[in-house]
Amino acid sequence: MARLQSLADKPGTSREYETVYILRPNTPNEGVAEVNNRIKGVIEGMGGKVIKIDNWGKRRLAYEVAKERKGIYLYWLYLAQPGVVEETERNLRMLDSVIRYLTVKVDEDVDVEARPIEIDDTSFEKAAQTAADEEDLFLSRGSDESPSDDDDEFGGDEFENDVPQAEPAAPPTEDKE
In whole angstroms, what is the distance from residue 63 CA to residue 162 CA? Predict the structure, then answer.
C-alpha cells in the first residue's frame, strides 16, 4: 500500500534518501546479492529511482551487535516518496542476515529527471561482491616479519646517540696581573 504524497512536496519531485545496512559477516556473496535484489525491487516497485549502491566491505563494528563483532556494510542512495522508506525498512527488518540499518533523508524536492543515475548492471553486481577484510587478510598471510631482539617496545636504542651531550665546563682561569 503506497503512502499518499505529502502536501509539502512539490509536484514532480521526490526526496533523496541514504540507507546504510549491515549484514552478518558470514553472509556469502549470493546472500548479499539476494538482499540487494530485494531492496532494489522494493524501491523500484514503488516508483523510486536507485542512484548509487556501494559495498563498503567487511568492517569491525564499534560494539557488538546481535552477537557479531564485524559486519558487511552496504550503502544505498535513492530518490523516492516517503512510503518507500517504510517498506524498505520493513523488508530489512524481516531479513535474518541484516543486523542494523539506518535511513537518512538527504534532500527534499529533488527533480527526478535532472538527477543523474550513477548505477548500472556492473556496479549493481559489484555491490554484491564482498572482499575479505584487512584482519582476515593479515591472519591468512601470517606474520612474515621475524621478531626483533629489542626488549624495548618502541623498537630500539636509535635515539640514545642523538641526544647532545653537555660540554664540561672549563675551570675558571684567574688572571694575575
Answer: 43
